[in-house]
Amino acid sequence: MLDKKEIIKNLTILPSFDEAERDLEGGIRLHIIQRLYKLFQPLPIHIDIWNMVISLMYQGYIARNPLDKNYKRFIHDTGKQIINRTYDLNNRTDFRTTASSGVIIGFSGMGKTTTINRILGCIPQVIAHNSYQNHHFNHIQLTHLTLQTPHNSSLKALSLQFFMKVDEILGTNNYKKYVSRNLSVDAMLPLMGMVAHNIGLGLLVIDEIQHLQNRGVNQMMNYFVTLMNSFGVPVVFIGTPASYSLFQNEFRIARRVTGNGEILWNNMDNRDTFRFFIQSIWKYQWNRNFTSLNEEIIQLFYEETQGISDLVIKLFVNAQRLSISSEREELTLDVIKKTVKENFKLMKPMLDALRSGNPYRINQYEDLRKNEVFKVKEQSGLDIESKLIRKGEESKVSPQDALEVQRFQRAVNKKKFNLAVDDIRRSFFEGKSKGVPIYQILKDEGFIDDMNMWEGTGI
To answer: Which residue ranges traverse the bilayer (predicted)?
Structure first.
């Protein structure tokens, strides 16, 4: 349980640096620059993720006190039923879970996985208990485990990965003991839950959740809901914006995530956070001539990276490499621009889409979709997301929520909202008021492609 200052201290990783190293041979300095890839500068969003992870872990343990008689009886009875193959996942009334889930959805390159690994790295993964409050207590606890979502959405592959990773960390033989070639997924899930109980698993992290394919989404989500409800294991999902629709479409997961831990991580705006980030790394220059940070450089860095932290570091590293190898030994605007031209070729279409601010162009790249949930808060204090207005969604909300949705719709029709300039709804309202066809408005603003360019090509 740490305060903000202690959290920042625990997360910070600063590379080794000595100004005297600027006088070393160029070949040596080219290797030294690689230290920058180890840098971890905590930002406000990292504090939010820390608090989410710790909260989920602590809350998940509340109902799983290994010294509680009722819980010990539940573990014993569950294990016996699983062994005898009489365990029923759908009929569990003797265990009330306190586990929940969290989700981190953000741009590629913002450091989602790195941040989670850094936070979990501050927590001992394995704890060997000998005693508790002067009582004998012999237990090995696994506080967290990270799994990668299989590319083919295979539940069996995920289950096998679970057993293998637990065995790798603890030196156990669960895979050999429980897994057989003909064992079904339905049979594996209770075994996973039993192992999770036995090792006191505090948190399960599922990374790259966007790999879930349509045919495997519902089955996989049911899998995670069961893991939380029946065995009390909190789950954190990590994915790119391509995975956001998975949670919107699965109401049970969305309900659990909302209010417990939902981090939507877009690229940084050219404001305080981005400027703080670039200022924090700028002193790590191994060019012979130190270049002071100025407004022109800040603007150029943002223009060429669009506030994606991984690209900021890569541009900073490669610009230094170019200045050293070319013997210029100074970070100039020309060096930075040349670095972008030589090293960011593959990313140019994506970065151009971000610079345009055109949602149509941005949405062509699933990893770059901005997660901007449009909400309205009525006097009742209830938040209604605009996605609830979609046709067919009314059946999933209560009558009171449906009434709030109707109020939301009336408010939209009356144009009570201050919509952003690039908001497609603004185009709709303006076109309607001017009598201009909506199609023409959307075409003029770049939301619709002009297909005339393909005429005569034979395509």
So the answer is: 187-206, 226-247
Q: Which residues contact 423 (CB under 8 A, 6 or more apart)?
A: none
- Give Cβ neighbours of residue 336 (< 8 Å, ≥ 6 apart): 297, 300, 301, 304, 315, 319
Name which of 292, 268, 208 is nearest 242 in CA terms: 208
- pTM greater than the 0.70 cutoff: yes
User: H-type helices in 263-395, by residue range?
Assistant: 272-281, 295-305, 309-325, 333-343, 348-356, 359-362
Domain-by-domain residue ranges, the chain? 4-42+267-356, 44-265, 373-414, 418-459
Fold of 44-265: Rossmann fold (3.40.50)
Tens place of pLDDT per residue across the chain (459 aa): 788 999 999 999 999 999 999 999 999 999 999 999 999 999 999 999 999 999 999 998 988 888 888 888 888 877 777 777 777 666 655 677 888 888 898 888 899 999 999 999 999 999 999 988 888 888 899 999 999 988 877 888 888 899 999 999 999 998 888 787 677 777 788 888 888 888 999 999 999 888 876 655 677 777 788 788 778 889 999 988 887 777 666 555 666 555 566 888 888 999 999 999 999 999 999 999 999 999 999 999 999 999 999 999 999 999 999 999 998 899 999 999 999 999 888 888 888 888 887 777 777 776 666 654 333 333 333 333 333 333 334 344 455 545 544 554 555 455 444 666 667 777 777 776 667 777 777 777 777 776 665 665 555
Instruction: Starting at the earlier edge strand, list the strands of the sheet with 145-148.
Output: 145-148, 204-207, 235-239, 101-106, 262-265
Taking the C-alpha atoms of residue 138 and residue 107, their distance in angstroms, rounded to an integer, is 43
- Cα separation of 109 and 309, whole Å? 6
Task: Tell me if residue 293 falls in helix, strand or coil.
Answer: coil
- The residue written with tokens 């809350």 in the block is 59
